[in-house]
Amino acid sequence: MKLLVAALESELVAFSEPLDGFDRLVTGPGKLKATYGLTRALDAGAYDEILVVGTAGALDETVGSGVHEIHWAFQHDVINEDGVRGEHVSMPQRIDLGVGDVSIATGDSFIDDADAVEVILSLGGRLVDMESYAYAWVAAQFGVPIRIWKAVSDNAKDGANITWEEAVTDCSHQLREHMREVYGV
User: What's the 3-state SS for 38-66?
Assistant: First the structure.
């Protein structure tokens, strides 16, 4: 059995229940809710794989729209004891999920200004969200393989021209179609 995970119910609007071979989990937004929700689920049941689906803001202008598989994650909103941004005092700086160059910077705030974007880009972030690092860390603690798919909902700067509801619905449909192509369900 696999576990399909999203932070928000709205990210799963295009996913009908049940999906053969998948349990479903909605954790709530942010690193703490993601950590708590996924830890409880993995403590309660055994899973062969975790598939996280959701939305992300694009920081890097070369990352186009559509669904992207995340290859590594880090926390952009932490600072270690030496004052180095992007490095936690006791957790891995980076969690590798696969071969490739699609990185995601996780933090507990929305990124909506050019200065914040430049800082995160300088750390290696190409996409930004509020949960991926937490999901990847929890999966590693339980030894469960994880895949993270993110659909680009917006550029992490000012100037969005559609509503969040429209963007997340569109992203959910893109993610659902990608799941059909990859998993056949």
Answer: HHHHHHHCCCCEEEEEEEEEECCCCCCCC
d(CA 90, CA 95): 13
Question: How far apart, in Å, are the Cα atoms of 111 and each of 1, 15, 57, 149?
Answer: 35, 27, 8, 19
Q: What is the pLDDT of residues 7-21, one digit of tens each?
A: 999 999 999 878 999
Contacts of residue 157, defined as CB under 8 A and 6 or more positions apart, other chains included, come to 112, 113, 114, 117
Distance CA(184)–CA(181), nearest Å, equals 6
The candidate with the shortest Cα–Cα distance to 110, out of 173, 175, 155, is: 155
pLDDT in tens, 104-128: 999 998 888 889 999 999 999 999 9
CA–chain centroid gap for 62, Å, is 19
